[in-house]
Amino acid sequence: MGQILYVRKKVNTKFLEDFGFNLKKVRIQKNITQAQLAIDCDVDVSVISRIERGVVNTSLSNIKTIAISLSVDIKELFDF
């Protein structure tokens, strides 16, 4: 039988940190707290905190929900 090879890609920590920093900037510009954003996204506030600190690689569906909650285009969250 053939051998299955699993490749784990290295997480780009700088990208996650930059995304999180930009998300925080947009959120603050909209005068929305982490707690309010978490409520609007139906997630725990710790999820928003971890995304903003760049310690979690969130899903695209979460990013879409965040963008909708902030009333911004998704691309604005990636404009860093």
Describe this entry's structure for a reader.
This protein is mostly helical. The protein has one domain (13-74): lambda repressor-like DNA-binding domains (434 Repressor (Amino-terminal Domain), Orthogonal Bundle). It is 61% helix and 0% strand. It contains 5 helices and no strands. It has helices at residues 13-29, 34-41, 45-53, 60-70, 74-77. The longest helix has 17 residues, at 13-29. The chain is elongated and about 55 Å long. The mean pLDDT is 92.
Separate helix tally: 5
The name of the CATH topology is 434 Repressor (Amino-terminal Domain)
CATH class: Mainly Alpha
What is the domain total for the residues?
1
The assigned CATH architecture is Orthogonal Bundle
Assigned CATH superfamily: lambda repressor-like DNA-binding domains
Structural class: mainly alpha
Euclidean distance between termini CA atoms: 47 Å
Give start-end ranges of low-pLDDT stretches. none
Radius of gyration (CA) equals 15 Å
Proportion of residues in extended strands? under 5%
Order of helices and strands: HHHHH
Overall geometry: elongated
Main sheet properties: none
Percent of residues in helices comes to: 55-70%
The average pLDDT is: 92
Number of E-state strands? 0
Write the layout of secondary structure elements.
Layout: H1 13-29, H2 34-41, H3 45-53, H4 60-70, H5 74-77
